[in-house]
């Protein structure tokens, strides 16, 4: 299996998106092997970023970024197709304008409302393209990579707001709703699923102690 994947990658004359490569693999396995009725191809791309030393890009040094680009392609022998893409582990931090208020309260609620806190979270979002068959993707620009970058841009811009004034977040849940709503408004052809995990942050203050002898 690994050898076949490497062979198919080597056969690509131009650079293709990971979604297109997953479709290519799924099409190959369902068309070549009679006993295969369906193929499920999952690919995870981890972004490596070039390291800079004293402001100069390092020739061969890289660090691993936090988020991952994911895709899953399900292809049937009859030509049915399902393409899902997404981002996982997109770590974001707002040091101003997050709050937590207007939530449901009962006799067991002890958490007070606040309009000033930090919000650190990991965003995971996946969206399904409305392709129903292999034939439906022929003879049209797919632009999977561009759409992935655009969706991530919408998520980040909605989370932070304008550079100077930002945008107030009354809760993680409210921010999640507005982020999903913004993506769906921009890409009505997508079906979106997303969630956010809170990151626990600890702030430590270093107090200098002066001892008088």
TrEMBL record:
Gene3D superfamilies (UniProt xref): Urate Oxidase
GO molecular function terms noted in the UniProt entry: urate oxidase activity
GO terms for biological process, alphabetical: purine nucleobase catabolic process; urate catabolic process
Catalytic activity from the UniProt record: urate + O2 + H2O = 5-hydroxyisourate + H2O2
Keyword Electron transport: no
Enzyme type, top EC level: oxidoreductase
E.C. no: 1.7.3.3
A Pfam family that the UniProt record links to this protein: Uricase
Alphabetical keyword list: Oxidoreductase, Purine metabolism
One GO cellular component term noted in the UniProt record for this chain: peroxisome
Pathway: Purine metabolism; urate degradation; (S)-allantoin from urate: step 1/3
Family named by the database record: Belongs to the uricase family.
UniProt-recorded name of the protein: Uricase
Organism classification: Eukaryota, Viridiplantae, Streptophyta, Embryophyta, Tracheophyta
């Amino acid at each position: 299996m690994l050898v076949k994947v490497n062979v198919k990658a080597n056969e690509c004359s131009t650079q293709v998106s990971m979604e297109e490569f997953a479709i290519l693999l799924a099409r190959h396995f369902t068309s070549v092997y009679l006993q295969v009725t369906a193929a499920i191809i999952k690919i995870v791309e981890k972004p490596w970023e070039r390291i800079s030393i004293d402001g100069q890009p390092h020739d061969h040094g890289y660090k691993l970024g936090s988020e991952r680009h994911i895709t899953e392609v399900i292809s049937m022998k009859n030509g049915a197709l399902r393409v899902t893409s997404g981002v996982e582990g997109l770590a974001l931090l707002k040091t101003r304008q997050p709050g937590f208020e207007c939530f449901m309260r009962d006799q067991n609620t002890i958490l007070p409302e606040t309009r000033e806190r930090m919000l650190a979270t990991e965003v995971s979002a996946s969206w399904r393209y409305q392709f129903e068959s292999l034939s439906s993707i022929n003879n049209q620009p797919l632009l999977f990579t561009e759409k992935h970058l655009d969706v991530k841009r919408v998520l980040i811009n909605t989370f932070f707001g304008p550079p100077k004034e930002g945008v107030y977040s009354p809760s993680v849940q409210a921010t999640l709703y507005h982020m999903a709503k913004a993506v769906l408004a921009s890409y009505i052809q997508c079906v979106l699923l997303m969630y956010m995990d809170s990151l626990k942050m600890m702030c430590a203050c270093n107090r200098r102690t002066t001892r008088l002898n």
